[in-house]
Design goal:
With 427 residues, this protein is an alpha/beta fold. It folds into 3 domains: 82 residues, Arc Repressor Mutant, subunit A (Orthogonal Bundle), CATH 1.10.10; 169 residues, P-loop containing nucleotide triphosphate hydrolases (Rossmann fold); 76 residues. Helices cover 40% and strands 16% of the residues. The protein contains 15 helices and 16 strands. Strands 3-6-7-11-10 form a 5-stranded mixed sheet. Strands 9-12-15-4-16 form a 5-stranded parallel sheet. It has a two-stranded antiparallel sheet with strand order 1-2. Helix 1 packs across helix 4 and helix 13 runs parallel beside helix 15. It is elongated and about 90 Å long. The N and C termini lie far apart (73 Å).
Length: 427
Amino acid sequence: MSKPEPIQRETADIVPPIALKVENTGLDFGFLADLALKTVYTDANCTTERAADKMKLAMPVVEELLQHLYREKFLEVRGLISYGNNRYGMLDRGWQRAQQLLGLNGYIGPAPVTLSDYTYSVLRQSADRDAIQPAAVRGAMANLVLPESSVQTLGLVASSRRSLFMTGPAGNGKTTIAMALHQAQQGEIWIPYAIEVDGQIIKVFDLHNHQPVEFKGLSRYDERWVRIKRPIIVVGGEMTIETMDLIYSQTARFYEAPFQMKSNGGTLVIDDFGRQRVDPHDLLNRWIVPLEGKVDYLTLHTGKKIEVPFEQLLIFATNLDPDDLVDDAFLRRMGYRLYVNPPDKDMYARIFQQYVEANGFGYDTQYLDFVYRLYEADKRPLRACEPRDLMLRCVDHCKYENLPKALSNEIILQAWKNYFGAAPTLE
């Protein structure tokens, strides 16, 4: 990616300039020619335009590649569609070459970008981010009931983009807080579909974790890049040391980027930390370099290590005792720490009213008093998630019984029983 042209701030921080020549892509001519051949191999009615659309390259670039393959007797020209847009077909020599190439690397799709262009893009988009203002943080937290001190801490986390270590009992909103904190970081970024390193492909973009948005700028851009909302990726018990490295498919013969690479420019949440199928200390040791140096080192199956940027808001969340998980050396590397307390009665009342009204029930303090009686009879501590969960079961009850949306002690008691498995006997 060459140095970007200035562009309206509301449109994008940077716009990848379109490459009109092969040499402007940063990729080897032979590599792109091989990708073009594989593209034609999978399309019986391939034209220059169709190949350009699949490879996300400008038509003059693709036509140059296809003409090279024609001269090398891999392809034949089957007709002229329009100027610079021919229909191509495979020759026997091309069939053999394409099958050989697919045996080495099965990637077919948008042309990749170079690792250096990817690194430049990530760092540039990180550096260009505006400081997050308190109003944005408070807006993102508006639907959460939190102590003012917690909101202050979260604001500092969002503004500084330093890591956060959240602890506290389960069910009190740590994951919800993490999601809201991400919402404070509004904006969009450019990421590549894929990256090329030493002839190997690393697939970065995926629809499961990335939400594309339409680019509304006036200028044309390099379509090897896709504009997305800042990503948020949540990983939990499935995280292992192996999933933190490049994932090589023996079948497809290319790599999938790990989750911390896919979350660059956004937020990465390590949820339920300590419940992974690997020793927490081994995981923590793996995080030391990214936390300290803002870079990560990934390994190709050839043994070669590559350096990639580590630019995201990193959040750890756990309901386990941190003394059993981490040591002081790790905690020193964390930017901020936050203990998420269970709600007191005042906070619980606000949460309860919020979910009562959000689910279409009329609010009356008598129902809150009844719920408090249930907690006391069951000797249960208050948890922030439970008003939501109880109201959802009240909704289920009314819907199933075809009842009007109206609370009663009987409906709340039934919801309590269905949620906790039993209901206390009240005097």
